[in-house]
Amino acid sequence: MASLIAILDLKGKPLIQRSYRDDVPPSYIERFLPIVLDLEEEGQQVTPCFTREGVNYMHIRHSNLYLLALSKRNSNAAEIILFLHRLVQVLVEYFKELEEESIRDNFVIIYELLDEMMDFGYPQTTESKILQEYITQESYKLEAQVRPPIAVTNAVSWRSEGIRYRKNEVFLDVIESVNLLVNSSGNVVRSEILGSVKMKCYLSGMPELRLGLNDKVMFETTGRTARGKAIEMEDVKFHQCVRLARFENDRTISFIPPDGEFELMSYRLSTPVKPLIWVEAAVEHHKGSRVEYMVKCKAQFKRRSSANNVEIYVPVPDDADTPKFRASTGTVQYAPDKSAFIWKIKQLGGSREFLMRAHFGLPSVRGEQDSMDKRAPITVKFEIPYFTVSGIQVRYLKIVEKSGYQALPWVRYITQNGDDYSLRTALEKTSAPIVPMM
Amino acid sequence: MSAFRGPPRKGENFELSADLNSEYREKRKDAIKKVIANMTVQKDVSGLFPDVLKNMQTDDIEQKKLVYLYLMNYAKTQPELVILAVNTFVKDTDDPNPLVRALAIRTMGCLRAEKIIDYLCDPLQKCLRDDNPYVRKTAALCVAKLYDLKPELVIENGFLETLQEMIADSNPMVVANTVAALTDIHIAATASGSTNDAFHITSTILNKLLVALNECSEWGRVAILNALARYETSDDRESEHICERVVPQFQHANASVVLAAVKVVMIHMRNVRSDNLTKQFVRKMAPPLVTLLSNPPEVQWVALRNINLLLQKRPELLSNEMRVFFCKYNDPLYVKVEKLDIMVRLAGESNVDALLSELKEYASEVDVDFVRRSIKAIGQTAIKIDEAAERCVNVLLDLINTRVSYVVQEAVVVMKDIFRKYPATYEGVIPVLCANLDELDEPEAKASLIWIIGEYASKIDNADELLGLFVDTFTEESYPVQLQTLTAVVKLFLQKPDNSQGLVQRVLNTATKDCDSPDVRDRAYIYWRLLSTDPGAAKAVVLSHRPPISIPRTTVSPQLLEELLGEISSLASVYHKPTETFVGRGRIGIDSVQRKSSDLADERTAAQKAFQTVAAGQQAENLLDFSDADGAEDGQQPSGLAATTMLASTPAAANLLAGTSSNPLDDLVSIFGNVGIDASAAQPAAAAAANSLGGLSFGASAPSPMPPATPSVLQNTSAQPSQQDDLLGLF
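^ Those are the sequences you sent over. The predicted structure of the assembly is below.
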């Protein structure tokens, strides 16, 4: 329950706001940033939710904006914070980018959306596809019969009836993101696979879909034996279209899909993963004048796969200058804004290994505090097509619609870095050499 | 501002007014947009009310929405004029287009002008029975809006009964909004002191809710789950049934649905008798909780705060999952801090090595605050796991060797706790610590090192020299350092009286004559009298054996923990504070407090709860703090495990706070009890102690410290024994 929602610029000035209940006067919006600044000044951390004088402030950050919700009750914090994120998502889908300017240009439609997405402080419809059916940027006359899409209140609130396609097709993208942390002695300390099955659905009518995966638990419950490998997903999350009770019963994934693009499910595995791309760097500091890096990168997957668009971020001191690079493959760039250099390799073949060297000048006068270099880890971005780390497979996708058309499912697999693929393997040359974990 | 001010004569508003009355439709619409734009940037456009109102009757739905938006904003300042809009509203509720009907009823409920309310009831009655579910779901919430304005009208018109019937609606979204409305009314009614249960959930309703749960939208599920949490089951079969039906919701992609489901299961699991089932539910809860960490950071933080509570109740919940809480380099600080706390909670003999190498890594990051907290976490790990203490000490020594000032200081503070827990085990470390004496400039670090020197005075050859340094600068030091210096010098004197006579004389002199802190002065007097009357007793007091410290398993009292677990995902569970402490200054709060004032007992329970939180919080903090007399330091830094701060939210609590701090005897009390607030608990023990010391007189008359105006506030069972522990420790 939220009494008021506002979008603020970085100076704390409200760009747009909507009151849902009048127990919190809008004047409280402008108190938000001063409180945040006070907290920062006192050295306290600013958390997403805090309370002041009986008013609860819940906020998130999106680029240069604060999205703020105020309430006086013991509100459902998770619900409100998520709603704010959903609001961002919807606005981004409407305006491509959400920033001060797009808010000023579109205030009319944002008011409309705020009116539709929340009522009396309770979230209502937040599916942007459905909202776009009756809240559009072009105005139109009432004669044109804008009616609430049945979907808004339907049991199937995510799909409208009467959708028609000449060619019925479904595209499935299985994307696995690998998060992993390698410590300075070369061991994997933490690793997880975040998988996601994304769908592009171009199907007519109200189709019933059933998705079959090589899910170990499913094989066990149905007593069937798997051909090939079965995987054990630790936790699965579904789009609201999937029948959860059915999944709980017999692990069947059955659903009526929304139209167009959406994420059908996500899953998590915390099985240990070998770093697909291994990077280590030897750093040599020459007293207060220059620093040298020797970076080794190795593709630790099968020869027949290859990684695309590999980007290796190696952190350097903030004040490094005059970069010189030499790489056995790819290109290297200095990114002073990130305090790192980036080694880009367009295509990295499996089991291949490459080296690069970098040389930077350093200012000769350094403060004492600087000797404590911040130890950002090396991070890597990559994509490996036609490959999943977990070995997940789509066994079938059954599509049944009462008109009885045939539809074609297409499946694509890809493995990429997650938001935290980092290696703490940049070591001073004097330290012991790293022995990579195999 | 006034409705009678007449139309503006010049300026932008004048032009807008002309445009609003233009004969061209497009021009009028553009003018409305400009008005709204001005409203958005908080320019006053209330003077245009009549002109805008003229544009309300239109078949352009966008224009209608804009006019409605304008009305919502200014209805309160122009109540007389709103009346003019009523006709159009009522007419719109009969429009053939359900979108218009819903819009009209939704906006009417938001106008919040007394005058219009009476006209709301008839159309609302109609809309509640509309054949379009979109209109019905909007009307359902409108009842809650009406209740907020004028509860009598809702009751007179029988809207509550209508809502009750609507729970059986065929459309799950209507059911969800009906549930939300009834819950909202229930909260408002309870807050205003009504004893009538506006939303009593019967077993028939329960079944309807369980059916609707699987069909409704994500937010609807949250509303229904919240209602399920309130249901009182009749037997364990029913509780099991609810849990089983709710568990599939753990798989929902929306984190607030997952947390709401966790809440329902945590509540109804209390009545599940089968251990097997309980275990099964707990096992199913773990993976979804871990997955919550793949959400955006703000959501992660809410989840982490809740996971922290869940772990206090069920430590086994995530016992194998410590690694998922390792901090990512780019995590915001607020996420890292929560993760640290949870990691320490999950630490055990099997994973302590991984944890320590992680914490050591964090201690070399750039953010000073995070570094300090990581070092604290190392100390907590040492105290929690006996077998790992030595490894922790080695890590701390490595950190001290970095010579980075704030790292060293924090490490010294942490070492003090380790000495406290494992006396006479790591004396070899003392020289390393003393070598860093000159680098300490923070009071807490200084005080910690002085405490260590005092404690091991007999084993440190040059203890008198080291302490002498602090005695020289005594008056310049902060009070905590002065207190520790005083105690340490006395300890030294009692252990090595030969060469420290001068020193103790000097420090007692300075402390009693030149010091302006009453705490320091009083303590100096007490030591002085003790030493001059009965050195044997002085030894018994000052050098007594201290009870070992330990990490508390919970940061809040058991009752409060149960209460918070029943409110998982709410602000209370995020703050780890009972609702009364942060809801209460608002409209509802003052009302309820006034109403409650006749019912003092109630109020006292609220205050009591608040104090339990504070006490428990301080306990958590203090166990790691000096536990010999240092009441003065308490509450200075409400950080650490509990991070509970006290809000004087109810008058009783405020009184108590005021009472304790203005109590002149408090200083005396604080010497005896760690938690100064708990005067009454300290009183008998203090008196007894005084007797045992043989009629020793405190100051002028040694009155037993009087508790503040209210009787014993703390009946907290967990707080009291350790309270007395502290006293025993002293005597």
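Chain A has three domains: 4-138, 169-273+389-421, 277-385. Chain A touches chain B through 99 residues (CB under 8 Å).

Shout if you want it in another format.
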